[in-house]
Write a structure and sequence with these properties.
By secondary structure, this protein is of the alpha+beta class. Helices cover 18% and strands 33% of the residues.
Length: 425
């Protein structure tokens, strides 16, 4: 059979990363299963296996949640307890789903799954409306500056597909979200169990005029989510082939974190401050005239200046400030609390530095959004505003200006565990 698969168009398809969050039993896993099942993104042997499991459990329908509950404990308890990444594609876009748990004790998992997301799906049970966990997940989405939030009002079949029930949830959520920095919010009434408004339009909710979930996922505009003003290119590695064909080639490989780099642009290497001009922008498929986020490219310069991993190429008239004292919102990921004056490895883009937490300003109560200025005892899953001092200047932007250069992690030197994720204020 002739294969019409076009590798180039597939590689160039836009990638949308989204995270899912909701309370236990809101139907998150069923929704993802329905999305994968109805968009024909599941292999036949997987379908057969899930059908057999559903029959063994005495169900009269295919339990779509089993497609995503990969861990044995999850399947036994029927809950999601880790971040599970799922991948699928339609003719219009590629998708990576971060399926994150709903419990408060897994806040760190949601922060991990949401940190690179363009979009958050927040599930709400149409019967229960906006609950504490809905508010917590929205707060985390706002804190992580996720540009788009889709509120999936699920289980509409259990309220007889009532528009009044839908309108009530929309009002509750809108009133709450007005206090937060959430930019693009959309509401979709659905029944993941029966497939209403997930991939195909619902016959039961003719009053709803918006698109299905998949239609919204395929058409939401995400290219404007990146910072195209401030040019930032963290160098991951220096490429020196040492072959006869490329004997003198010296290129700097990395992913564009901000701005648009063009051939002929004058750039500055940080921290050295040495200047040069871009002579070429190279990719696996050939040379380009310009590069922008989130493209991975190799940049060559006219001058042979000293650049290595951890350096950053920027425009001379638009440089980030090198700071050793950072103001950071930190999510603590580790079971061991931070030790006083303990040394950590701070990793930001491609650079590393030793650092310590010098001050805890306050903790956030992520259920009430109140600041706890008297409670500075940080435990796992806590979010706190802290001051961090590093041994060398860190070239970071504010997180709300650039999510790539404004984020960092702390690693315990002794155990090599990632203990915290932070957002620069």
């Amino acid at each position: 059979m002739e294969n019409n698969f076009d590798t180039n168009s597939y590689l160039n398809m836009e990638l949308l990363r989204f995270t899912t969050a909701g309370s236990v039993d809101d139907g998150k896993s069923t929704l993802i299963g329905r999305l994968l099942y109805d968009s024909k993104s599941i292999f036949e042997d997987q379908v057969a296996q899930i059908e057999a499991t559903s029959t063994k459990r005495g169900l009269d329908h295919v339990d779509l949640s089993l497609f995503t509950d990969g861990l044995k404990d999850e399947r036994e308890q029927g809950i999601t307890i880790d971040v599970a990444y799922r991948y699928f594609a339609t003719p219009k876009r590629k998708f990576i789903i971060a399926d994150t748990p709903g419990h408060v004790q897994y806040t760190r998992n949601m922060v991990t799954g949401a940190s690179t997301a363009n979009l958050a799906l927040i599930l709400v049970d149409a019967r229960k409306g906006v609950i504490e966990q809905t508010k917590r997940h929205t707060f985390i989405a706002s804190l992580l500056q996720i540009p788009h939030v889709f509120v999936c009002i699920n289980k509409m079949d259990l309220v007889d597909y009532s528009q009044e029930a839908y309108d009530r949830v929309v009002k509750e959520y809108t009133d709450f979200a007005a206090k937060l920095n959430v930019q693009d919010v959309r509401f979709i009434p659905m029944s993941a169990l029966h497939g209403d408004n997930v991939v195909t339009r619902s016959e039961h909710m003719t009053w709803y005029e918006g698109g299905t979930l998949l239609h919204n996922l395929e058409t939401v505009h995400i290219s404007a989510d990146y910072n195209l003003r401030d040019c930032r290119f963290p160098v991951q590695t220096v490429i020196r082939p040492h072959t006869d064909e490329y004997h003198d080639f010296r290129g700097y490989a990395g992913r564009v974190a901000g701005g648009i780099f063009k051939k002929g642009d004058k750039v500055v290497a940080l921290p050295s401050g040495l200047e040069s001009t871009i002579s070429g922008i190279h990719t696996l498929t050939g040379e380009l005239d310009e590069a922008f986020p989130p493209m991975s490219v190799t940049i060559t310069l006219e001058d042979d200046i000293d650049i290595s991993r951890g350096d950053m190429l920027v425009r001379s008239e638009n440089r980030p400030d090198g700071q050793q004292d950072l103001d950071v919102m930190l999510c603590w990921l580790n079971a061991t609390p931070p030790r006083p004056r303990a040394k950590y490895v701070l990793k930001q883009t491609t650079t590393d530095a030793r650092a310590m937490i010098t001050e805890i300003q306050y903790k956030m109560d992520i259920n009430t959004l109140h600041r706890l200025e008297d409670d500075k005892d940080i435990k796992m899953n806590d979010i706190a505003r802290v001051k961090i001092r590093s041994t060398k200047p860190i070239f970071a932007d504010e997180y709300n200006q650039n999510r790539v250069t404004g984020s960092l992690i702390l690693v315990d030197e002794a155990t090599n565990e990632t203990v915290a994720a932070g957002m620069v204020r």
